[in-house]
Design a protein that fits this description.
Blueprint lengths: L1 E4 L6 E4 L12 H4 L7 E4 L6 E4 L12 H10 L4 E2 L6 E2 L11 H9 L1 E5 L6 E5 H5 L7 H9 L7 E4 L6 E4 L10 H8 L5 E4 L6 E4 L12 H14 L1 E5 L6 E5 L12 H5 L1 E5 L6 E5 L10 H7 L12 E3 L5 E8 L5 E5 H10 L10 E3 L12 E3 L3 H9 L10 H14 L2
Antiparallel strand pairs: 1-2, 3-4, 5-6, 7-8, 9-10, 11-12, 13-14, 15-16, 17-18, 18-19, 20-21
């Protein structure tokens, strides 16, 4: 660490190098490009002056929450009741009456107003007054709405008969009635087209030339059936073997079943590993396993994608071979390759907790019988390992095989 001088406030501080650079500022406040300065305010509740950091455009009025709550208690906001006109302190922002009695009276009371159209006096409740009631009835309010600038009607000319009709500025009508619109469509000067179904020549308007294909609804339905028949392909049901036809689109897959019944039927399958008979929904391929556990085991069988000849090599050099024994979950058991070779040579199984085998050349992957030495028990193996007994140089597998063969012959 060393003493450094802040580039903003000039203060001397002890600095430590970080990421290969020395700091230039003494604090985060000085490091900020536009540090905020505290402003002085006067509390409106207690009159005490205090300083705070500015918070946007809002001005701070109180020095603490206690002063803010005290000011609200001292000067409660009052409101006049809409029914009786008395001032009261509202409990909610949407409050309009001082009590329930005033609210009930306001619903049944009102005052007389003068209609802006006919000049007739009518009775209006407080709710209707709040909505801006001006007219006594709908008959009087209709001409008032039409007199507004945004509701005024303008003159428009029919393109077919030439008569003038009234429309609003936002209305884009071209004809005065439906009869004129139909007459304009049947007017000569359209586009002649030939129906692809019946061959009849018909005339359509230029705006309908691209969309209209057939002469009528009957030919339209026949054309749709013809297009559907063109997309039909032949298929054979994978369940019952029945031949059927279906519509195949460019984005759909090949349909395997002729009906929903064949699709939902379950077929009987036999697991390759545990030979368990299970029922599964029928599919194009025959499922080979009943569960994921059997699938993991089955992929290691001969012919599987992960089959390695039943041999597993460990990082320490030892070689394991698969056996016919299985765990409770069905997984295959593996055994040391050199122990299996020795057991096959001597004609009997070795004690799994005894008879350690030593590789004479130190290579655990070299499982030749000439490279194996069978110890009598674990104590002999430990004495050889600690150097209490000289390390063997020759294999004793042949001697053990001859000894066990002589014992077998001597038995009656």
């Amino acid at each position: 660490m060393k003493e450094a001088v802040c580039e903003r406030c000039g203060k001397v501080f002890r600095a430590r190098m970080t990421h290969g650079r020395w700091p230039r500022f003494c604090s985060r406040k000085c490091w900020s490009p536009n540090p905020k300065k505290k402003q002085s305010y006067v509390c409106k509740s207690c009159g005490k002056s205090f300083s705070r950091l500015p918070r946007g455009k809002a001005k701070r009025r109180f020095c603490s929450r206690e002063c803010a709550s005290e000011a609200k208690r001292k000067q409660p906001q009052t409101r006049n009741c809409e029914n009786c006109g008395k001032p009261y302190v509202p409990k909610r922002k949407t409050s309009r009456f001082c009590s329930l009695e005033c609210a009930w009276k306001a619903q049944a009371t009102g005052k007389n107003l003068v209609c802006a159209v006919c000049g007739k006096t009518f009775w209006a409740t407080l709710a209707r007054q709040r909505d801006g009631a001006e007219c006594c009835s709908t008959a009087c309010s209709a001409p008032l709405r039409e007199s507004r600038t945004d509701r005024q009607l303008i003159d428009n000319r029919c393109e077919e008969c030439g008569t003038t009709f009234k429309t609003r500025p936002c209305d884009k009508r071209r004809f005065c009635s439906k009869a004129c619109a139909y007459s304009a469509r049947r007017k000569p000067g359209g586009v002649d087209k030939t129906c692809p179904v019946c061959g009849m020549v018909f005339r359509v308007t230029p705006c309908m030339a691209a969309a209209r294909v057939t002469c009528g609804a009957t030919c339209r339905d026949k054309l749709a059936a013809m297009r559907k028949e063109a997309k039909m392909v032949d298929g054979v049901c994978a369940r019952c073997g029945k031949a059927f036809r279906y519509v195949q689109h460019h984005h759909s897959k090949v349909q395997l079943f002729c009906s929903a019944k064949c699709k939902t039927l379950k077929a009987i399958h036999k697991c390759r590993v545990c030979h368990k008979v299970v029922r599964r929904p029928f599919s194009a391929g025959d499922p080979q396993f009943c569960s994921r556990a059997c699938q993991k085991i089955g992929t290691r069988f001969s012919g599987g994608s992960q089959w390695n000849g039943g041999i597993s090599r460990r990082p320490d050099g030892r070689v394991y071979v698969i056996t016919k024994k299985r765990y409770d979950n069905g997984a295959a058991k593996y055994a040391l390759h050199h122990r299996r070779l020795v057991e096959r040579e001597i004609g009997r199984s070795l004690d799994p907790n005894g008879h350690p085998i030593i590789h004479l050349n130190g290579d655990r992957s070299d499982n030749r019988l000439e490279n194996l030495y069978v110890c009598a028990d674990r104590s002999e193996a430990s004495r050889i390992g600690f150097g209490h007994i000289s390390f063997p140089r020759l294999s004793n597998v042949k001697q053990l095989a001859n000894a066990y063969a002589a014992i077998a012959k001597a038995k009656p």
